[in-house]
């Protein structure tokens, strides 16, 4: 880690991380989608529109996994 960063107060370091994350999120919106990715997205959307299965929420799936451990 950059020693200068360690000298900053915790709240300021947290703010820097949040700002950095926000800037990454903004850049991600501009990433191009490849033809293969677009085809896969279209395939998944078509499958959803045919069966209407919305899947299950993450909490339910995680609980089931934990019960099996």
TrEMBL record:
Q: Name one Pfam family in it.
A: Unstab_antitox
Question: Which InterPro entries would you find in this protein's record?
Answer: CHP02574_addiction_mod
Q: Which domain of life is it from?
A: Bacteria
Can you say what this protein is called?
Addiction module protein
Source organism of the structure: Rheinheimera lutimaris
**What lineage does the source organism belong to?**
Bacteria, Pseudomonadati, Pseudomonadota, Gammaproteobacteria, Chromatiales
């Amino acid at each position: 880690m950059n020693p200068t960063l360690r000298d900053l107060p915790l709240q300021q370091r947290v703010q820097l991380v949040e700002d950095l994350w926000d800037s990454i999120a903004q850049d991600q919106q501009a990433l191009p989608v490849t033809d293969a990715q677009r085809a896969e997205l279209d395939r998944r959307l078509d499958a959803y529109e045919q069966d209407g299965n919305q899947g299950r929420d993450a909490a339910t799936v995680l609980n089931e996994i934990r019960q099996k451990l």
